[in-house]
């Protein structure tokens, strides 16, 4: 039996389905370089090219199309066989950003799993807006205005943004004031305009929001603040654990009302399955406990 390097099949299938090394890497939680290496390994084994590589796009060669169809058929057989064996357990696939997963969802997820031992929750982290139907995602958490055509959305978190810093930044003092927020200390995520909006609302017109370090991922912004490298403007609900343990300190300064919110997004038919309804009830109830009192009042 002549079998290809089986590990490479998964990388090839994702790349062929998405026609993007970058998107395949995000889905598989590896680097684009790792995807490219595995695809080349498979091409070397087969002795032919599977992709036509252009400057800005990928397309399958004739051999690639034939092999992709065979891979999908084979993986489908394995998936169905696996599903029969594991039919007693329901898998819920949740897509969200790395920050939401690490700072809010995963630390609380054990609570849900303790009440639903028959359910497995798989968390897929990406900044990409996934196609729920095509990619088999049951729920997605999106940061936006809440309007997603063809999908149902439910508000999760819309609490204020607050300025925070690590104890090292203000040592030996144990509390921080608005005066501790200076231009060179600003830590930004990809939404750099948040600090500008905060400065206008707080009346700190001398604050230059163009200064400071910019991070692509909010997790890095939070960790930089914990390490004492500056001041971050973050949603309180995402740093509750750090505030409780005093790894972060809330600065005595006005909060900023967030223009965007986190929404749970799903297809209407998803809640027809009892396990999905159970997860939906849990996460929406949990989120409601983190909203301002005015939002949860009858």
TrEMBL record:
<protein>
    <submittedName>
        <fullName>Transcriptional regulator GcvA</fullName>
    </submittedName>
</protein>
<dbReference type="GO" id="GO:0043565">
    <property type="term" value="F:sequence-specific DNA binding"/>
</dbReference>
<keyword id="KW-0805">Transcription regulation</keyword>
<dbReference type="Pfam" id="PF03466">
    <property type="entry name" value="LysR_substrate"/>
</dbReference>
<dbReference type="GO" id="GO:0006351">
    <property type="term" value="P:DNA-templated transcription"/>
</dbReference>
<dbReference type="InterPro" id="IPR000847">
    <property type="entry name" value="LysR_HTH_N"/>
</dbReference>
<keyword id="KW-0804">Transcription</keyword>
<dbReference type="InterPro" id="IPR005119">
    <property type="entry name" value="LysR_subst-bd"/>
</dbReference>
<dbReference type="InterPro" id="IPR036388">
    <property type="entry name" value="WH-like_DNA-bd_sf"/>
</dbReference>
<dbReference type="InterPro" id="IPR036390">
    <property type="entry name" value="WH_DNA-bd_sf"/>
</dbReference>
<feature type="domain" description="HTH lysR-type">
    <location>
        <begin position="4"/>
        <end position="61"/>
    </location>
</feature>
<dbReference type="GO" id="GO:0003700">
    <property type="term" value="F:DNA-binding transcription factor activity"/>
</dbReference>
<comment type="similarity">
    <text>Belongs to the LysR transcriptional regulatory family.</text>
</comment>
<dbReference type="Pfam" id="PF00126">
    <property type="entry name" value="HTH_1"/>
</dbReference>
<keyword id="KW-0238">DNA-binding</keyword>
<dbReference type="InterPro" id="IPR058163">
    <property type="entry name" value="LysR-type_TF_proteobact-type"/>
</dbReference>
């Amino acid at each position: 039996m002549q079998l290809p390097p089986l590990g490479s099949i998964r990388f090839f299938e994702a790349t062929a389905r998405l026609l993007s090394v970058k998107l395949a890497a995000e889905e598989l939680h590896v680097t684009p370089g790792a995807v490219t290496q595995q695809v080349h390994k498979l091409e070397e084994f087969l002795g032919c090219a599977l992709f036509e590589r252009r400057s800005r796009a990928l397309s399958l060669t004739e051999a690639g199309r034939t092999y992709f169809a065979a891979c999908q058929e084979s993986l489908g057989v394995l998936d169905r066989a696996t599903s029969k064996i594991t039919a007693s357990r329901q898998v819920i696939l949740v897509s969200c950003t790395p920050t939401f997963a690490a700072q809010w969802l995963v630390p609380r997820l054990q609570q849900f799993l303790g009440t639903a031992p028959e359910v497995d929750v798989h968390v897929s982290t990406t900044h990409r807006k996934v196609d729920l139907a095509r990619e088999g995602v049951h729920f997605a958490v999106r940061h936006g205005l809440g309007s997603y055509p063809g999908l149902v959305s439910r508000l999760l978190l819309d609490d204020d943004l607050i300025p925070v810093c690590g104890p090292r930044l203000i040592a030996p003092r144990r509390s921080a004031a608005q005066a501790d927020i200076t231009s060179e200390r600003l830590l930004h995520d990809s939404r750099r305009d948040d600090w500008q909006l905060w400065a206008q609302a707080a009346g700190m017109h001398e604050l230059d929001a163009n200064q400071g370090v910019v991070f692509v991922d909010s997790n890095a912004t939070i960790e930089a603040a914990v390490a004492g490298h500056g001041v971050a403007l973050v949603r309180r609900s995402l740093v509750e654990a750090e505030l409780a343990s005093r790894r972060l300190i809330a600065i005595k300064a006005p909060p900023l009302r967030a223009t965007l919110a986190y929404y749970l997004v799903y297809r209407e038919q998803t809640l027809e399955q009892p396990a999905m309804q159970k997860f939906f009830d849990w996460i929406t109830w949990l989120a409601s406990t983190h909203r301002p009192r005015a939002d949860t009042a009858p």
